[in-house]
Design goal:
- The chain is α/β, with parallel strands linked by helices.
- It folds into two domains: 138 residues, Rossmann fold, CATH 3.40.50.720; 167 residues, Dihydrodipicolinate Reductase, domain 2 (2-Layer Sandwich).
- A nine-stranded mixed β-sheet has the order 14-13-12-11-7-10-9-8-15, with helices on one face. A six-stranded parallel β-sheet has the order 3-2-1-4-5-6, with helices on both faces.
- Strand 11 and strand 12 form a beta hairpin.
């Protein structure tokens, strides 16, 4: 089988994570890297035995698949250009930093002949994949409490710059907005409150969500919480049972009334596997090879952006946000 020539646009940390996975996949030829910082691109090329592309056009001309691992606010134009060129696209989250741009990317992806996958890695993390399996089977969820915190917006220095990230919710919290949709389905109604304490942007959020299934959840996300373990956690409450996670380390099941818990630890897994990066990259290459749909679609990317934008809107307006029927919306997009 001819190997798939893959190019990476953006030679920062997350680009390196994907490159370390891809170079071990026998179906992949990690061919080119491009970055606005030539020195950083050279270091990346040396580390991963690929060549430096002098432009994004050079990547598009020579690669069948492209990873977009640039800063958040630079994703949209690249994603549209890659899709329009018929390339297979892996776009890191967020797909965009506003809904209008996310819809433009979705439309480009729907018109493209290539696979378009969005990098919501936590869907593939074993802790969350197992939680999803349990909630689809043995445990029927009633309600949930979710948190996702950062210790600070100081390191790296760009993480507190909304011109780069799109805002705290787009950089960090979007992971768990996508996870709640993955676990519980489409959101029907959102109430949100926020406050500003340490940074120039709103850095603490409390959110109440109702899903189309009737399940309701509370969600807290703080950007200045310290790195108290676990910085992310999902607790799902079922019929005389609770299923909970501690970051991507542990899954805990309590389904008896005698206080007995069963824990499944993922602690010994390599980080690339534990956090789902390796699995999402394999899924992307699988989709290319097999001609199958992406595991995380551009529509999924749009919906996570919608949830973040709605959260900001609810905080700023003081009003709840009602969502349209997402299943109908997805059908209409596909028809158009």
């Amino acid at each position: 089988m001819k190997k798939i020539d893959v190019g990476i646009i953006g030679a920062g940390y997350i680009g390196e994570v994907h490159a370390s996975v891809l170079r071990r996949d026998e179906r992949v030829n990690l061919s080119l890297v491009h970055d606005i910082d030539p020195a950083r691109a050279e270091r990346f090329a040396t580390s991963f035995s690929c060549k430096v592309a002098l432009s994004t056009d050079e990547v598009l001309e020579n690669c069948a698949a492209v990873y977009i691992t640039t800063p958040n606010t630079k994703h949209v134009d690249l994603a549209i250009a890659c899709a329009a060129a018929g390339r297979h696209v892996f776009c890191e989250k967020p797909m965009a930093t506003n809904v209008a741009s996310a819809r433009a990317v979705l439309n480009a992806a729907l018109k493209s002949s290539g696979v378009f996958q969005v990098g919501h890695n936590r869907r593939f993390a074993p802790v969350y994949a197992r939680l999803k399996q349990l909630l689809s089977g043995k445990y029927q969820p009633h309600s949930a409490h979710v948190k996702m915190n950062r210790g600070e917006l100081l390191k790296p220095d760009w993480v507190g710059n909304a011109d780069v990230t799109g805002g705290f919710l787009f950089e960090t919290t979007i992971h768990m907005f996508d996870m709640m949709r993955f676990l519980f389905g489409e959101v029907r109604l959102m109430h949100a409150f926020g406050s500003r304490h340490e940074y120039a942007e709103i850095d603490d959020f409390s959110v109440l969500l109702q899903f189309e299934t009737g399940l309701h959840a509370t969600f807290a996300s703080s950007a200045d919480a310290s790195w108290l373990f676990p910085f992310e956690r999902v607790e799902v409450f079922c019929h005389h049972a609770t299923v909970a996670t501690r970051e991507m380390e542990t899954l805990i099941c309590s389904d008896s009334l005698d206080g007995h818990n069963i824990e499944q630890s993922m602690h010994q897994l390599p980080k690339e596997e534990k956090w789902g990066y390796a699995q999402e990259d394999r899924a992307f290459i699988d989709a290319i090879v097999n001609g199958s749909p992406a595991a995380v679609t551009a529509f999924d990317g749009l919906k996570s952006v919608e949830l973040v934008e709605a959260c900001y809107e609810a905080v700023n307006s003081g009003n709840p946000i009602q969502f349209a029927n997402a299943s109908l919306e997805e059908t209409l997009f596909k028809r158009n």
